[in-house]
């Protein structure tokens, strides 16, 4: 899983084979997940466990049945989108820019129709942005390919890319701490680029 920074999280989509229910079986236990990790601040080992994942096996469906998990649906949507982003990159690298844009536009429509669409705003923004960058050969060479690669890496690691902190870039996985660190880095960069302005301000302050 790798290291997690402040406020980061990792989600795992596990596909399991559900066996046929046995006679008189009302509940089937699928799996139980445990996690062992080391706290970076203290270096101490820690453990966590989740309740066992089970499914009910009723003979008939009733109105009281729990609805499908939106978190699971969101991960399904994200996984499908990630695969199409990779397919769009292959198409665009092969010169099929219109086809690459069509792949992303079709996936965007599928995301919008999904029951988890409310939780996928960042993903929709990303697909719109990428679609606009792959359709034109020149735009793809200048910014599109780099943005596609950054998006693929971001989804693979479930971690925001450097471009995620820009105003018009997708903001999936971006945490408050990361935004704070990026803003601090920008301020320091501006100070290094304009040292004369700082000296003038210091002289003015001394003159006062």
Automatic annotation (TrEMBL):
Pfam family, any one: Vwaint
Entry's transmembrane regions: none
Protein name stated in the entry: VWA-Hint protein Vwaint domain-containing protein
Bias type Low complexity, positions: 153-172
Spans annotated as Disordered: 151-208
Annotated VWA-Hint protein Vwaint domain residues: 119-185
Compositional bias ranges of the Basic and acidic residues kind: 177-186, 194-208
């Amino acid at each position: 899983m790798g290291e997690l920074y402040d406020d980061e999280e990792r989600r795992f989509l596990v596909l399991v084979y559900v066996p046929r229910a046995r006679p008189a079986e009302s509940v089937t236990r699928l799996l139980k997940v445990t996690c062992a990790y080391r706290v970076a601040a203290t270096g101490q080992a820690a453990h966590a466990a989740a309740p066992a994942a089970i499914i009910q096996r009723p003979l008939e469906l009733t109105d009281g049945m729990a609805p499908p998990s939106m978190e699971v649906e969101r991960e399904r949507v994200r996984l499908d989108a990630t695969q199409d982003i990779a397919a769009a990159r292959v198409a665009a690298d092969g010169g099929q820019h219109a086809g690459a844009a069509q792949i992303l536009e079709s996936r965007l429509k599928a995301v919008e129709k999904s029951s988890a669409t409310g939780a996928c705003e960042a993903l929709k923004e990303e697909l719109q942005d990428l679609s606009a960058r792959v359709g034109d050969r020149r735009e793809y060479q200048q910014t599109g390919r780099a943005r596609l690669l950054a998006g693929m890496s971001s989804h693979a690691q479930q971690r925001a890319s450097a471009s995620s902190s820009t105003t018009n870039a997708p903001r999936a996985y971006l945490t408050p701490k990361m935004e704070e660190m990026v803003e601090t880095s920008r301020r320091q960069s501006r100070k290094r680029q304009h040292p004369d302005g700082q000296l003038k301000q210091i002289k003015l302050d001394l003159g006062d």
